[in-house]
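Working notes for the structural subgroup meeting. M.R. asked for a predicted model of this chain before we commit to crystallization trials. I am recording the input and output together here so anyone reviewing the notebook later can reproduce the run.

Input as submitted:
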Amino acid sequence: MLAAICLPAGLRAQSWSRRRDPALFYLTGGERALASFQAHHDRISTLAPQAFALTSWGELRGGIAPLWLQLAHRYQVRLMPLVINQNFSGYRATRLLRSPAACDRAIGALVAAARRDGLAGWQLDFEGLPSWDRTRLTRFVRAAALALHRHGKTLSVAVAARTDDRHTDSFRHFTGVYDYRALARYADFLTVMAYPESGRHHPGPLASYPWVAKVLAHVLQTVPPEKISLGIPDYQTDWGYHRVRVHFWRRIGHRLHRFVRWVWRLIGFTGRARTQPGRLHWDPNLRSAYRVYGHGLHRHIIWIEDRRSLQAKLDLVSIYHLRGYSIWRLGLEDSSIWRTLPRFLPSPAVVENQAATGDAAPLPVPRLRHR
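Returned structure, recorded in token form:
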């Protein structure tokens, strides 16, 4: 598999760009995301708002603001919202998966909401589950897919990336719960979240070309390429701040885990990809851009996902004839990436039990609604 990454550019088939929904963009709302969507909606085939969560008893919480629904239907962009386990709690997800009544309740709510809002379907994004819940997660995906398919809706699953199946700590507590082969059998496609490659203990690029190629080589052993959407980051991260966090962690210990996590999310360790001519460096082997500033202990390394690194990953999508790509997230991207992405024909959704909306005056900024 890895030998294919050396193919000349002229031999790279571009059939993926002609498929129905190859370009999925995630969304959390905001003015920047709105501006990007209005300017480049013809390069987005599917919009996936992160706006819903399932509780441990199967209740579907959250919702998409009506204005985002109106925009998506106006531009004829398919809507496939993310539905997560509430607060990404592995404990709550386990309780849900172990209760047949809760699973039935959850699936019924997903079907009802998809029909009500004219959604193309759902992407299930359950994270933080232990590997011993693998069979339960697969069983839930199978039942949800069957129910949604009966109503003409689709189900995709977001899965964490791994390069092998060794039973490491990460496999047992995060990545091992995803049975690639079984999930692909029942779901319409899998989004392989090929990021982040690096972390606070091992600073580096978010998703280097060689590592993403290894991820794909592994998943393609059990999943056909037409069922794989490559998850791609479009933001930047500053490992200097992470290094400070590690130092703090070692000194204080694990008692303040929740507090540190909350503060870190408040500050934010990722941001919008920003490029300034003459200040970016490019690693031709990793195919990633980075910027270095500061000195000594105050030195910072910012890895940035720009147009060049995006193109490298799109080359992999083409080489392996994948279904398409899923980009996290709208509003964080380097504006130059839009020159790289192809345009698509619109795919209008079927709205059930909902009055058609005509053209309206310019819309205020829509925001995702959470309960």
